[in-house]
């Protein structure tokens, strides 16, 4: 049952709040003229300073450009010198609900070189991430010519080559596909299937 606070009771702050910093209201500031004029965005309906948290910020900017060109110019100027400065920091700190983060584009994760054993024979397994935009069929043909042996595409991102060719592949991969950095190639040892 919820009880109303008895009159005259002392409100004790929750323990979690101890030691935390709160904004203290110190009255009107001399550097600001009152009443404060709040400008609202016609696109997202929020005060202008919240526009950057709106998922469709680009639309807000368009609206600003047409309706409040002065503000738009100031915004542009802020953006140019402050992207990694205060604005950026604020954005990272605030977080929380209502904020829709732009999805980060997946970065290439690299190339894995492993080998598989079948009896005494080994084969090399190259796992190439699709982000490298390498045509695996073409790559497999290239390997079979280069090593004069069999090579085939075994899954949507894997090529197998007869024999253990891992050592040679470090150089060959980077030479043939400049988008692959040698540091992105990992030797993952034996692959068990
Ligand atoms: Zn807006």
From TrEMBL:
Annotated GO MF terms: mRNA binding; translation initiation factor activity
Matching SUPFAM superfamilies: eIF1-like (SSF55159)
Region (Disordered): 75-106
Residues in SUI1 domain copies: 117-177
GO biological process: one example: formation of translation preinitiation complex
Domain of life from the UniProt record: Eukaryota
Listed name of the protein: Density-regulated protein
Biased composition (Basic residues): 90-104
Family: Belongs to the DENR family.
Species in which this protein is naturally found: Argopecten irradians (Bay scallop)
Pfam families assigned: DENR_N (PF21023), SUI1 (PF01253)
Entry-linked InterPro entries: DENR/SUI1_TIF, DENR_C, DENR_N, SUI1, SUI1_dom_sf
């Amino acid at each position: 049952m919820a009880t109303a606070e008895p009159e005259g009771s002392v409100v004790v702050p929750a323990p979690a709040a101890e030691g935390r910093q709160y904004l203290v209201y110190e009255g009107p500031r001399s550097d600001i003229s009152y009443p404060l004029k709040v400008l609202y965005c016609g696109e997202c309906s929020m005060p202008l300073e919240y526009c950057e948290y709106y998922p469709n910020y680009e639309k807000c900017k368009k609206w600003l450009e047409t309706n409040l060109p002065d503000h738009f110019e100031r915004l542009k100027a802020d953006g140019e010198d402050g992207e990694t400065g205060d604005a950026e920091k604020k954005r990272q700190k605030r977080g929380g609900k209502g904020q829709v983060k732009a999805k980060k584009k997946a970065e290439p994760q690299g190339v894995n070189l492993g080998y598989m054993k079948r009896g005494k024979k080994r084969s090399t397994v190259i796992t190439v991430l699709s982000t490298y935009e390498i045509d695996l069929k073409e790559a497999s043909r290239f390997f079979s010519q280069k090593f004069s042996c069999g090579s085939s595409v075994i899954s949507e991102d894997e090529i197998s080559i007869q024999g253990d060719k891992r050592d040679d592949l470090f150089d060959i991969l980077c030479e043939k596909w400049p988008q692959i950095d040698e540091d992105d190639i990992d030797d993952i040892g034996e692959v068990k299937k």
